[in-house]
Amino acid sequence: MDSEELSSLCSSLALEEEEEILTPDLEAGLQAQGERSIDRSLVGCVLSTCPIARDAFVHMIKGVWKTKERFEVETIGSNKFVFHFLSTTDRRRVFAGGPWCYQNKLLVLEEPTGVGDYSKMSFSKAPFWVQLHNIPVFCMSKTVGSILGNMVGLVQEVECNQDELCLGTFIRVRVIVDISKPLKQILKVRLGTDKELVTILLRYEHLPELCFLCGLLGHPLRKKGTGSRDPKTCG
Fold first, then answer.
1. Cα 174 from Cα 159, distance rounded (Å)
2. Residue 99, preceding bond cis, omega within 30 degrees?
3. How far is CA 223 from CA 16, 40, 127, 232, in A?
4. pLDDT in tens, 122-163
């Protein structure tokens, strides 16, 4: 590199260092419009290793959601979409009504926040109704359901009567689950004054495609393989 090229490089580096970070003064109306757009949007990702057919997906999801007002679907990446709702009521109902699936593949929804930077969304959490089986009769309560449910994920609701008792043969809880990790199939807990070890069986309702080897959602359905529980080597 000769002296002239070196001088040019140093000059460009100096200019880069002097560049300012600008904060545009957006008009209040434009900012409010952007905030309304975020408030009426959901971002979704279909968990699949293969690209899905957009038109078929949009046709299916509009039929399943049955919103009172129309909504638009924008593609922002491979199997990733933004759903623009006219009605905030429709948006809330859709977000609270999951889990949603397309061709037995989970559609993970997230609410955009801040400036709505889609690239920072992880799509790692999803709601499920989970049945807790094999629970002793004296533990069939909302309190126990909340404690056990929080071992699975973040509890949103425990199905119980007005006396906070859970009737039937299992406790039903709605939980936000971290789907970036293998789904838990059992819980081993000690209950009662004698601390008896009890194995609680978990049954996820409307569970979509799941890899039986590593326990992750979104993997191709596998029943045979190396036997590894490691998601990187389960095939």
1. 8
2. yes
3. 55, 41, 25, 16
4. 999 999 999 999 999 999 999 999 999 999 999 999 999 999
